[in-house]
Amino acid sequence: MSTILEKIASIEAEMARTQKNKATSGHLGLLKAKLAKLRRELITPKGGGGGGEQGFEVAKTGDARIGFVGFPSVGKSTLLSTLAGVYSEVAAYEFTTLTTVPGCIKYKGAKIQLLDLPGIIEGAKDGKGRGRQVIAVARTCSLIFIVLDVLKPLGHKRLIEHELEGFGLRLNKQPPNLTFRKKDKGGINLQTMGPQSELDLDTVKSILSEYKIHNADITLRYDATSDDLIDVIEGNRVYVPCIYLLNKIDQISIEELDVIYKIPHCVPISAHHKWNFDDLLEKMWEYLQLVRIYTKPKGQLPDYNSPVVLNIDRRSVEDFCNKLHRSIAKEFKYALVWGSSVKHQPQKVGKDHVLSDEDVVQVVKRV
Cis before residue 346, ω within 30 degrees of 0? Predict the structure, then answer.
């Protein structure tokens, strides 16, 4: 293991020494590719499974999963206790939480699982502390809360982002808009749809050679970086929304609070005093992008108490049927829908119809 870490350290040192300009971009691209491969070996060590340590893997329940990530003693456990009513050990010393503590809240009819993860330390992505297991659980979350101490937020924010990025987590980002396709022959074919400041054919070839890829079609639809290309080749990146919770706002002035509110993706809170939780829950709902669908049995009023909760990417009538029960899709004839996704109230639709938040659906089965 130490040899991988030593290689990573020497590559990072070489990258820090190398001047960034057009002449060195190919060399830097190659170093970044080497670094990404070594990081992948750290995430998935060779020699079989058995990676998940006891107490870390928590069964997924509910409609979404939120992981609390942060340095020790920033108030993650207090926050979980106040939000979910779960007792996660809280104390004034560091490293109180040593395993994943799950909790659950109901909000707007959706069940949301909360995971209080052990505190991250610098070097977590390289396996220091319990960093690797913490980040592996974070990769399975639908949303990440990075909990920061409001008195030292930006330094901690940068360090945690660096640790998560090193493990293939991309926070509040979209997947790179570029196409990469391997082929059997014909060499490297690079197409660009706009001017490129970093990637040219030589740089692309040097990155691909590190992966032993000599035949591929690549289309860049925007000014892409070598990091973008490496992310697409690696194919194991997780793109996840993230909210930064600046905790302990009872210790700062109103003027400082005004400044903090301008930071993107941030919500200032006080977990101890339960301040600003409404704002936090509202932003959580916005970032989770969930869609509530109400069921209507034939001849009865819709059930507004327990909606079927779908993800915004998978909200067709067929997804709705599968969430209710696998057998319903097989016997499906058509559905009647009331709500903003249809022009008429009700409207007869097929399996492919895409539903909107708070639609009401009645499924009609084949007799």
Answer: yes
